[in-house]
Amino acid sequence: MCGIAGEICYGDRRADTEAIRRMLPCLESRGPDGGGLWDGGRITFGHRRLKIIDLSEAGAQPMTDERLRLTVVFNGCIYNYRQLRDELTGYGYTFFSTSDTEVILKAYHRWGADCVTRFLGMFAFAVAEHDTGTVMLARDRLGIKPMYLAESPGRLRFASTLPALLAAGGVDTGIDKVALHHYMTFHSVVPAPRTILSGVRKLPPATVRVIRADGTSTERVYWEARFDRSLEEADWTAAVRERLRLAVERRMVADVPVGVLLSGGLDSSFIVALLAEQGQKGLTTFSIGFDSGGGESGDEFEYSDLIAKKFGTEHHQIRIGQDRFLPAVQRTVAAMSEPMVSHDCIAFNLLSEDVAKQVKVVQSGQGADEIFAGYSWYPPLAGVPRDQAAAAYAREFFDRPHSDLTRQLNPAWLPDGDVSRAFVEESFARPGATTAVDAALRLDSQVMLVDDPVKRVDNMTMAFGLEARVPFLDHELVEIAAACPPERKLARDGKGVLKDAARGLVPDEVIDRPKGYFPVPGIRHLEGPVLDLVREALHAPAARERALFRPEYVEALLADPNTPRTTLGANQLWQLALLEMWLQQL
Fold first, then answer.
1. Is 302 exposed, middle or buried (0-12, 13-18, 19+ CB in 10 A)?
2. Which residues of 320-350 are buried (b: 16+ CB within 10 A; e: fewer)?
3. Which helix (H) or strand (E) holds 219?
4. From the centroid of its chain, how far is CA 433?
């Protein structure tokens, strides 16, 4: 796991090497173990390294193969790199390192842009051909690793984080009205390729973009899970268990120890159980808890302790008091590449700070709810006619209807029409998802999952140089989950097939418990110093000048900070304040 950056210029224009140098300090937390820069004339790549595989300098980046005339910068991990290395050796390739980075170089030379279909893992990378000037940008199937883009006449820049692009300069930081509508409507998610800033875009998941020396380019999506019944499985429970077992085994590939973030819920507990079954001894696990607030408990240690005891892990409880919580709020906002309203961000930031002191790699349970239908908005869609599915989804998931938003945003910031509803309708109208639940799961796994929980985990763990691996997003497991009949996923209050797969390995008390979450009462219930931060952000001169929100809406929320909630129960005031806090720290 690392931080990457680069500039690609067209024609005879040389890349601005100093701009890339300005980007690299912004990526240092993602790669604290070293850095490098490659100047290829009209192409320049920069890199910050986190040493996970091949700890020697042979694995340093940017990596160049002079024989093949290729240079790569890469963020992520290719879990099957050893198998691919053996295959490529059979084709006559020789290797100067034991890194997965070099496997990407050789695979690209052998198979071209199709190399991505052979990679099992998470990745964002750029490969430059010295002789032709062609550059390929690629992102993994589920968008686990980020890639932000800033284009201007004659050049394209890319980076692992949005702030790194801003550090290079020359970026339009105006607000994208369509993205703002998505942020306020689509549960604070801004679908790719947009970001909240007009001048920054992001390469969509499962996408390859090939850029030629003259600036022309092609872009294609190379993978999509099929949400239909084309895959016949006699035993879905066994299939899910076996695919997850393989996924967690793959994610132990490393030249450093691998731990587990153990919330005490089904998903992370299942990961620990499968690793224990595979003979992993002395596994290190971590859980976090906060002070109670607003009548809500701040921890789930009861369940994480139960799992740690059953499987004999070296378990660490991380207890967060008010002395650490308040400073972490602003630090967490600064670590966001895009504004992310989930209070889980603060939990992951604090958890990552402590975990990174002990291990460099962890497995985490993100993604299970989005692929196995674990959320509250899926059951109401069961049985909804396919032509009514988009409307039903919007009622269940959207933070507010467009009619409410017109009374909350200032008129100057309203786009033409209900763009979020149109986005969902377009997605639901695509063929290939048999039922309303299938269509919702397809949209959530391709968009919401990528630009909420997955991005949250990446941003917060990498703020401390901690690599998070997510076995539930192994694409082969996602394909099984997508093909599984919705009724099997919706059974037993959601994730039925996953619960069946866990039975006998994970204690029944965990499988049958009510659905939990990362409890952060200090954000769900705003009071005291945190509420003061919120009020300060919304009353700041920059906020008044920007004037995104109608003043009467802001003042009504500040007068009653904890009652107005979104459809899914999020604090409306925090949603506004988080956006302003993020914009003000750019």
1. exposed
2. beeeebbebbeebbebbbbbbbbbbbbbbbb
3. strand 217-221
4. 23
**Facing residues of 220 across strands?**
208
Stretch (H or E) spanning 126: strand 121-129
- Judge contact between 285 and 323, C-beta under 8 A: no
Three-class DSSP category at 63:
strand
CB 303 within 8 A of CB 509: yes
Return the percentage of the chain with pLDDT > 70, whole number.
98
pLDDT of residue 323: 84
Q: By C-alpha distance, which of 427, 428, 434, 402 is closest to 417?
A: 402
Start-end of H helices in 186-264: 236-250
Residue 444 amino acid letter: D
Average pLDDT over residues 97-112: 98
pLDDT of res. 344: 87
Angle at 134 between CA 128 and CA 135, to 5 degrees: 50
Furthest CA-CA distance within the chain = 71
Report pLDDT digits (tens) over 126-137. 999 999 999 999
Phi, psi dihedrals of residue 288, rounded to the nearest 5°: -130, 150
Question: Beta strands of 348-480 (E only): which ranges?
Answer: 361-363, 467-469
Q: How far apart are CA 383 and CA 362, in angstroms?
A: 39
CA separation for the pair 81, 345 (Å, rounded) = 31
Residue 124 phi, psi dihedral angles, 5° rounding: -140, 125
pLDDT tens digit string along 286-323? 999 887 765 566 678 999 999 999 999 999 999 988 88
Whether 13 shows a pLDDT value over 80: the answer reads yes
Residue 284: count of CB within 10 angstroms of its CB: 17
Helix (H) / strand (E) containing 575: helix 572-584
What are the beta bridge partners of residue 25?
A: none
Per-residue pLDDT tens over the stretch 495-527:
999 999 999 999 999 999 987 666 677 788 899
CA-to-CA distance for 157 and 146, rounded, in angstroms? 14
Looking at every residue in the chain, the average pLDDT score rounds to 95
d(C-alpha 502, C-alpha 514), whole Å? 16
Given a contact cutoff of 8 angstroms between Cβ atoms, the answer to whether 261 and 468 are in contact is yes
